[in-house]
What we know:
mainly alpha
Amino acid sequence: RHGKHIRLVWSASIANAAGQAFSVFVLLHFPVDEPILLPVISVYTGIVLETAVLLWGYKQHVRKKLPPVTSEPLTNRAIFEFAWPLGVVQVAQRSSRPLVNMLVNRSDPNNDGFGVAVLSLVYPLAHLGYGWLNNMKAIIPTFSPNIEGIIRGQVPMGKITNFFLVCGIASFGLQVVLLWTPLKLFILERILGVPNDLAAAASFPLFLYSFIAIAVAFRSYCTSWATAIKQTRLLASSSIVRFGGVLFGGVVLPHFGASGATMGVGCLVLGFGLEACAVVYTSNAEKKRQLLILQTPSAMA
């Protein structure tokens, strides 16, 4: 935060996405015995590369430049109250994709892992267009550290809000270019060397996945806002809503004829959408509550 090393975080995110895409490319040419392992290996490859870039960057560029601590000392209780909701969010978000893989694998009538193999292609390619929005969660705490100004929406909050809006539109536009046009088939078949049947099966799930960028933009803004005012408890319920949305989709969508990767991506779209709605609702409710507190005579004294 203090050094504003946004390029470091951005580079780590690119390493994650590139690692997932490269691992899928390699594994498609060296098939594993269990197809469900493809997305698992892909995700772990991305996490390892992202962590390595962050640790290297912190050691080389951040640790030596940290300013001395001037604020009042932290307590273990304050750290726990701030950190536990973030832990819940991470558990819920990280487990949603494996849950989708399990639902798709169980619903596969042929038990050949074809749906999971399609999902392993969809994840890294779709993530390219919106993954970088997740790294914008640090923007409000970095550039608008005044909590009262954040709540009142004062400068620079207006500029930050507009920036999030532009980035959300740009991300969805990038998804449209990547996932709505023949470019996706060119990337899958010509660049990654994916067989034609897998590429064709991934076409509609990729189209559905593009809408997740909208939900992630709202979620990223609200997460950044809640973190800046040190009210991370607002995020815990939304992550649970996402997990429940994925489960609900896995039960309901097959009754509407959805199956395979299409059902899996539909579950994710439902989970992401409900999570975004929940975090927007809780953030707005907290903002109204905080504004009422600031407008009381004791707060203004």
